[in-house]
Specification:
The chain is of the alpha+beta class and about 300 residues long. It is about 60% helix and about 15% strand. The chain has 2 domains: about 110 residues; about 130 residues, no CATH class. A 6-stranded antiparallel β-sheet has the order 1-2-3-6-5-4.
Length: about 300
């Protein structure tokens, strides 16, 4: 019995010794597990507390993103507006250039029209002047024909009444006759021939009778010289006339003052057409030309 009790007591003590460390270990484990449990319990609280902050951050981030998108949209709108303004400016410049070109073309057309009108007006004036010149020429021709007819009539009617001057050579004339001739010729002498002389162009053109070319070549020109002393000479209308080659021709100019007093007796002369009319040439003074005019018999 004692042994049984001792064994029972020993078993009890053994159980108690084993249970005590186990309890201590259990307590230690419980103590260790308690903070973890507290942390696990606190973690949801922290999570619950952190959740609104995260939401705020997300909201703030969303607002920032939204603001950034709005700024981006504004920037894009501003860029589009600038581009549209540039395009508008380019279009305005193109329109201005086109308008300038149109204005320039219109001015050119206007200038061309004005030039054409001026040319037409100038042509009309030229035609009118030509017509006036033709009319004036016709009138001059008519007047010349009438004058020639009157001169022919005067020559025919009064030729017999006019006494021709003495046309004998100086050797055949008496000193008194020579003196009379010299006095008569002195009336046609120039005081300053260079200032008193005028050619046919200066006189407005030759308007007298024109000798036919064939007859002119036969009797006149450089190769047909003569002296005046042996020709019929007379005054008509205040001008001295000579008959040679079947025609009468008269001196329109005075003769130069430096020619000899008896040049009409001793100098060889000839009649030629020079540039603008008929002239009397003196071989002793080849540079001088005295304007003359032809008349029919």
């Amino acid at each position: 019995m004692k042994q049984t009790g001792i064994i029972s007591m020993a078993a009890l003590l053994l159980l108690l010794g084993i249970a005590a460390p186990a309890d201590a270990r259990q307590e230690k484990q419980d103590e260790k597990a308690k903070p973890a449990k507290q942390e696990q319990q606190a973690k949801p609280e922290k999570q619950q507390q952190a959740k609104p902050v995260q939401q705020q951050h997300q909201q703030a981030k969303g607002q920032q993103d939204q603001q950034r998108q709005q700024r981006q949209q504004q920037d894009n709108s501003a860029k589009q507006q600038q581009q549209a303004n540039r395009q508008k400016d380019q279009q305005h410049q193109q329109q201005q250039q086109a308008k300038g070109q149109q204005d320039q073309q219109r001015q050119q057309r206007q200038q061309q029209d004005d030039s054409a009108k001026q040319q037409q007006q100038a042509n009309r004036q030229k035609d009118q002047q030509h017509q006036q010149q033709q009319q004036a020429k016709g009138q001059r021709d008519q007047q010349r024909q009438q004058r020639q007819q009157r001169e022919q009539q005067a020559i025919v009617q009064h030729g017999q009444q006019r006494q021709p001057q003495d046309n004998r050579s100086a050797q055949q004339r008496s000193p008194e006759q020579v003196h009379v001739q010299q006095v008569a010729w002195q009336g046609d002498r120039a005081h300053s021939w260079k200032s008193e002389h005028r050619n046919w162009q200066q006189r407005g053109g030759y308007d007298g009778y024109r000798v036919p070319d064939e007859r002119f070549r036969r009797y006149y020109g450089h190769d047909h010289g003569f002296r005046i002393y042996n020709l019929p000479v007379m005054y008509v209308g205040g001008h001295r006339r000579f008959q040679y080659g079947g025609y009468w021709f008269g001196l329109v100019d005075p003769w130069p003052e430096y020619w000899s007093d008896d040049w009409y007796d001793n100098d060889d002369v000839y009649v030629d057409y020079y540039g603008d009319g008929y002239y009397l040439f003196n071989r002793r003074h080849p540079g001088d030309r005295i304007a003359i005019s032809f008349y029919l018999n």
